[in-house]
Design goal:
- The chain is an alpha+beta fold.
- The chain is built from 12 helices and 19 strands.
- It has a single domain, classed as Double-stranded beta-helix, CATH 3.60.130.10.
- Helices cover about 30% and strands about 20% of the residues.
- Helix 2 crosses helix 4 and helix 8 packs across helix 9.
- It is globular and about 60 Å long.
């Protein structure tokens, strides 16, 4: 049995209720769009690259007011926001990167998404040998290579419910696929409460360590591993970090303890409950989705592109450390670096540059 109290507050929601009452929607009004256009033009006149843009370049009154509202909704509200609708057809790809990075800098602080120092990432089906480019484990059971989480993200396949290693994930939809590619979201607080009611023993298991691999993050090898619970609480606030792919990769390392029967059951029930309590969000071109990784899981259905008709799915992704972020449980430094409220944290550690032989 568990003596834990149920979680409460606006971040604990059921998918069906979010569909009926979409408090996560925001609109780009004419004033915000005008300020975006003015800030973009000023940045172009200064010949800034997108990665040279700073907060002050886009911190105009209407944009700041919108992003303060978004930050509040992400940390103290539902944990998700979809902003409609940026007229992407009006802008070049270079302009979209400039203005999107500028908006992200007003909302939070971009952090690295891979060991190569990328602050913005194209999320699309790159095809080809993704595992050799982004991490894989060669298996001997005839099932083919086991792909890292990063490699799977850049395919057209289904993505299981997971979190990213950042306070907030931002996705700007530039183009949507011919079919599929639907975003799926679920409240981790709702999962916590459902398990507390149905299987408190399973909930307690999720507050204990599961070994993870850094394959596809700081390491090209599965053997770089660390233990971390799936659920954690500090000062009454939940955080959950979860990706089954990292757990599965760690299980392929000989030195890592094998999952117990209860741990396996906990993962199965976690995934089933996430599916049950989730809802789907369709991203149309010009929509921007922000999600708080501490209180939501996100996933994606598989998709099919049609490049000849410009229906090849392209999202621009930002990872943001948030100035209003929560304090995290002691022990999570192994993942986040800094666990105190409001501090910059998260992202992927950078590999040292190769020595110069000049």
């Amino acid at each position: 049995m568990s003596s834990r109290p149920p979680l409460s507050g606006p971040s604990v929601w059921l998918g069906k209720d979010m569909v009926a009452s979409p408090r996560w929607l925001r609109e780009l009004d004419s004033r915000v769009l005008e300020e975006i256009a003015i800030a973009l033009q000023a940045a172009k006149q200064r010949q800034l690259r997108w990665d040279q843009v700073r907060r002050e370049d886009f911190a105009t009154p209407a944009i700041v007011a919108l992003m303060e509202d978004v930050a509040e909704e992400l940390e103290n509200g539902s944990g998700i926001v979809k902003i409609r609708t940026l007229p992407v057809e009006k802008y070049s790809d270079a302009d979209l990167r400039l203005l999107y990075f500028g908006l992200g800098c007003v909302l939070g602080r971009p952090v690295f998404q891979n060991p190569r120092g990328e602050l913005m990432r194209d999320i699309r089906d790159e095809g080809g040998d993704l595992g050799k480019r982004y991490g894989q484990i060669d298996t001997k059971d005839g099932t083919g290579p086991f792909l890292s989480s990063y490699a799977r993200t850049l395919s057209n396949g289904k993505l299981r419910f997971h979190t990213d290693r950042t306070d907030v994930v931002g996705l700007l939809c530039v183009r949507q696929a011919a079919s599929g590619g639907i975003s799926k979201l679920v409240s981790t607080g709702a999962i916590h409460n459902a398990l507390l009611q149905r299987r408190p023993d399973i909930l307690e298991t999720l507050f204990q360590d599961f070994w993870r691999s850094r394959l596809g993050e700081e390491s090209d090898k599965a053997e770089t591993v660390y233990p971390l619970p799936i659920f954690g609480l500090r000062e009454g606030k939940l955080t959950s970090h979860y990706s089954l792919t990292y757990i599965e990769a760690a299980q392929m390392v000989a030195a890592v303890p094998k999952l117990t029967a209860l741990q396996k059951e906990a993962i199965e029930l976690l995934m089933a409950t996430a599916e049950e309590l989730s809802f789907e969000m369709v991203l149309e071109p010009g929509d921007i989705q922000f999600i708080n990784s501490h209180v939501t899981y996100h996933g994606r259905t598989e998709f099919t592109d049609d490049p000849q008709n410009r229906k090849d799915r392209l999202l621009l992704r930002l990872w943001l450390s948030m100035p209003n972020c929560r304090a995290l449980p002691v022990g999570q430094e192994v993942l986040w670096g800094n666990i105190e409220a409001g501090e910059k944290r998260g992202g992927i550690g950078q590999r040292p540059a190769p020595p110069s032989h000049a």
